[in-house]
């Protein structure tokens, strides 16, 4: 299958430019905070390792207790720098999730990928990249822009995220594509919800997410 692509440098630059103001500016526009908090509260315990993928300035996982090890990855250097300042004990690295995760990062008990798969160009590849880093029995929370025929702005495979101003694509995946990717990769879906994700001011619309929690059931290594 052929996948449409973004210029990754451009995506990184756009997020570099808003890294300092991102949390303050976007928080009032989002609906996902409670879902992320609930996932972390239920699934992260003392001594465990958490991966925050597409971590932005790290605000979702930086409040975790210090006896939890947090690793954050993001394509934007300025976001990674901001996250490191917020939680100096964490490990923060520049990484594109379309590429395999660095093996030296090891396995994680919980992985969060909130809001970053808006830019996911190849769902099976990206979920595969992530799930190899999920420990046996570990849990993975992610949101995905969900393609739905009946919802305005949600019926195409991708749209221009900036309404023609920035030339960056946001990608949309159907429920069936997401479920198939999860099944193909040997992950078990635990919860799923279709609900508002955030307000896109440029497009003046609500972007709806599929909220998924999946569990790793691959054979023990
Ligand atoms: C909408 S922000 C979400 C930040 C944070 N997770 C949150 O929920 O507030 C999207 C983040 O994904 C990052 N991102 C976009 N494409 C990426 C890629 N290919 N690999 C890694 N991070 C990416 C951006 O730099 C940005 O920090």
From TrEMBL:
Residues 50-138 form the Methyltransferase domain. Keywords: Methyltransferase, Transferase. GO terms for biological process: methylation. It holds the Pfam family Methyltransf_25. Signal peptide: none annotated. The keyword Methyltransferase applies. CDD domains: AdoMet_MTases. The keyword Aminoacyl-tRNA synthetase does not apply. GO terms for molecular function: methyltransferase activity. This is Methyltransferase family protein.
